[in-house]
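Write out structure tokens for Resistance protein SlVe1.
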Amino acid sequence: MKMMTTLYFLWLLLVPLFQILSGNDIFLVSSQCLDDQKSLLLQLKGSFQYDSTLSNKLERWNHNTSECCNWNGVTCDLSGHVIALELDDEKISSGIENASALFSLQYLESLNLAYNKFNVGIPVGIGNLTNLKYLNLSNAGFVGQIPMMLSRLTRLVTLDLSTLFPDFDQPLKLENPNLRHFIENSTELRELYLDGVDLSAQRTDWCQSLSSYLPNLTVLSLCACQISGPIDESLSKLQILSIIRLERNNLSTTVPGYFANFTNLTTLSLDSCNLQGAFPKKIFQVQVLESLDLSNNKLLSGSIPSFPRNGSLRRISLSYTNFSGSLPESISNLQNLSRLGLSDFNFNGPIPSTMANLINLGYLDFSRNNFTGSIPHFQRSKKLTYLDLSRNGLTGLLSRAHFEGLSELVYINVGDNSLNGTLPAYIFELPSLQQLFLNSNQFVGQVDEFRNASSSLLDTVDLRNNHLNGSIPKSTFEIGRLKVLSLSSNFFSGTVTLDLIGRLNNLSRLELSYNNLTVDASSSNSTSFTFPQLSILKLASCRLQKFPDLMNQSMMIHLDLSDNQIRGAIPNWIWGIGDQGLTHLNLSFNQLEYMEQPYTASSNLVVLDLHTNRLKGDLLIPPSSPIYVDYSSNNSNNSIPLDIGKSLGFASFFSVANNGITGIIPESICDVSYLQILDFSNNALSGTIPPCLLEYSTTLGVLNLGNNRLHGVIPDSFPIDCALNTLDLSENKLQGRLPKSLVNCKLLEVLNAGNNRLVDHFPCMLRNSNSLRVLVLRSNQFSGNLQCEVTINSWPNLQIIDIASNNFTGVLNAEFFSNWRGMMVADDYVETGRNHIQYKFFELSNMYYQDTVTLTIKGMELELVKILRVFTSIDFSSNRFQGAIPDTIGNLSSLYVLNLSHNALEGPIPKSIGKLQMLESLDLSRNHLSGEIPSELASLTFLAALNLSFNKFFGKIPSTNQFQTFSADSFEGNSGLCGLPLNDSCQSNGSESLPPLTSQSDSDDEWKFIFAAVGYLVGAANTISPLWFYEPVKKWFDKHAEKWLLWFSRM
């Protein structure tokens, strides 16, 4: 009897223990399931609509099983009452009525309905389950206002109403009641998850509400709740918080330093909160902190401090913030670190070699930073699966030792760096590697064959933009899983036959453009040839002489065969490639002459590039609103269809430049409301400019109508929100004035109205344009002076100004040259890659429109196909300017070209011109300049063209090496000059040619010289007059008389 009592006592102790340890599927109970409980559960099952094929719990509840406490998802207490229901992810798609059997399970302490699809409001009946301690309705499809009845659940310890994908039409929200009223009776609550619940009605006092009513809170998760900042000081009362997740709220505040006082804090997630200011370094030092996520806060600054030994951090994500500085060597103290994301930072300096000691590291993303130096070895990081070091300044070699033994590595991206040397074959042999990006580096040499290609898991190999040469390794074409192969822009050589590509059955993207490869398409016509179903094929500059047979390509959307040697017709089958039709077709830079009939472009075609061929006939316009159409540089001489606007409804880029297109500009082009670039230049268009074309320039960034036969006035119809960056109307027959509404184009960088018939004054209205870089008004009939009201902000970025061949008068404005800061300092655009004036369109792409301009440089008319942002030029030639050259011109320290020729300028050359150290061309010819040539000009070491002819200079020409490179033509017409390269040497006693003087004695000498000359001429006449009637002499005189007269006129 005593033994039985002891066993019974032990059994009573162990039953609760087993109940805890056994999870949710196996339960020990002291009695059978109560009939009423079983009945309620079966009623509940019957009220639900669910997918029985996907159910793991409900589908197994049935009448034949008497013990309902053993049903999956059901937990009973010792008395047989149901105390827990786990019905998560049962694919329930019906609502819960307020009379549901669920609300009769009064003993429920735990209810989990997560991950279902109820798509109704939360039933108020849940508020009757007052014994609930755990309630999880997350991601269950509940919508609308959270009922006040839930606030009756005063015993709740854990509440989870979060949703990953809220219904934006009917979001789950706490509005009435708001958060304060909802939680005021929930003092036992320790874990609160309201992610995705609309708490906007709470405004900024959510911190006070939480700290006032939830003193025992350990987990706070309010992601994407539309709460706002600041994070109030009152939150510091919740000292036992261990998890804080507030990501995706527009808090617009600083991070409070008191978080560092939360000694239990293990997780702090503030991703995408629009945080500002400096992040408190001491938070990094919280002893138990395991996860820190501050990513996507561009205004949050800070640096990473040194880490103490045995730090607890496992995950750090600081991507897309404004953190800067270097990465401390002590990063190796975080021996538990498994995930480190520092992409899109301002980090610089080397990657610490101590990173090699992070043995638990699994994920590393340092992309888009300024890290320099070599890549550390990661052999000890055996758990590493993801490595992204792309878009940095890393240098050095990539060796086998970097990755040896990393058998779990799945992803490697070291693209867009400056790595060099040859590629180790070992990197292709890593057993788990699936994606390999080595693009845009300086790798050289051949890529060696690698082992085990047929069993490789690689699906992506990107070696673009390197200096790799030799043949493409044959093992590449044995990687059976390969989906993406990108080898463009290298020096690979040899012949690639399409049947070789046909081995890659899973290939979906192939890029071989811009190598020294020859792609042989002849095998594509073979009946036995099977080409993989590609979505993207880029074979630009592959010496193709014919179209490969792609008629059976059902998946293809992008085809680039540009810069090849394909002649003749564009086959009509090309428009039927792909089940949905091509979206991108580039056949530019070939020798195509016509389109095979009949042809109908795909209705899905977004990009059509046919420029630089020999196409004749009508323009091909896709039938259904393309975005990019380039038909430039062909041989079409037809007119633009009058209804062109209907076919270009969504077009951003349309160019028919460099053809022979005739007719007028159709007004329907104004209906293309998304147009950013319109280029009709270098054609034979006539008529006037449609006023609507300028009226609708709120999206138009580039309008180029240059070199046509347009006439009439420029419409004065630029809107107040004009978006033009480039306006080129040059080389037409336009008349009238520059429109005053042009001042509305505040983004204008290039204005070219040269070579027209405009009659106007200098456009002082544009003097406050901060964006204008190029102003060309040459060869018109502009007049007046340049005396604009100048301020310190006038023309600040002007770098090219050409007003040559007009009728401008007056003196040169010294203040102009004081304010043109765009010509004063060396630009850093070359370093940043923005080294040309260009207009970016398709904001998510790298597509640019390249501006051009024609200037007179070194006496020759040259077209600048690319306008360097560092190129600067002033051309005021062939006007009627008077007075002195302002000394302030010497401020333009980055000036390349200065042309003031053919004016009436007087006085000496300012010595300050010697400060123009970048000057390459200087033309001051045909003026009335005088004095000596300043010796300072000899320091202009880049000066390649100099013309000082036909002025009144005197003295010795500087004899430096630079001046000795110029011919005598540069100095002719200056009677007072002497020394090389002129034949008139200066006197050896040191007295050099002097300027003409105006004293009386000099005047007498001049008269004596004149009388002596007359006497000499009379005598000479007597001598040569008999020869006048000798025919050969007469012809010789007729030929040279004009030159004599010109010489005498200059004396």
